[in-house]
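Preliminary data (for renewal application), calcium ion complex.
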Amino acid sequence: MRAVCAGLLIFFIATMVSGFVSAESTRQWDVSFQVQSGQNGYWVSPEPLDPGYLRYYLRTDLHTVVEMWAIIWIVVNEGDDTGFSETWGPIPPAGRVITQEHIEADVDGIFIALDMTTWVDGDYFLHVDIENFTATTPMRVTATGTARVLETDTVYGDLVADDWLDGQDVLLYAHVLAGNETTPALWLADMDSDGYLHSRDLVLIQNFVVGNAVTAYVDWIF
Ligand SMILES: [Ca+2]
Ligand SMILES: [Ca+2]
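Predicted structure:
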């Protein structure tokens, strides 16, 4: 009887551990907002994040239309853009700012500036704030597309297995590519999801480590 109980206990512990290691969930939401120069714009996720995960990968795929006012709205720029950011968990009850950037651009001689902040509030809803939007001519920006969040207990690219992505992982990856280390699990290290370990995966990890979230993981599919 004791052996059976011990066996069941081991089974349940193994199930819990394996469930923890592989636990992840993907959320996808439609994004649609419009903001004019002189005004602020805000987007809030329709549902909160689960704060207890080890990592949160955020990806936006947006079609953006930039227009200027000249009696009517005239399109001056249009295109598709993928953005990527991430943060670690657990997310504290106070929430957390994920990215905060001041953006300046020259669109056909019109100077545009704005502040964009991505953050999680105390109830774990994801926010994108656009504030201090100024332009030398009245402008508006319309964005439509999707936002995706992968909540996971796996830190992709973490070859050193310390639950963090940094220069150590980059170095180990370089050794792997040089044939000097045991090949890591493909699912963990194949950052662009093409089924191979190659220099592009190393570049993607490097971009993320140095904080170049615009190009890091852009081709990473989840
Ligand atoms: Ca690491
Ligand atoms: Ca790859």
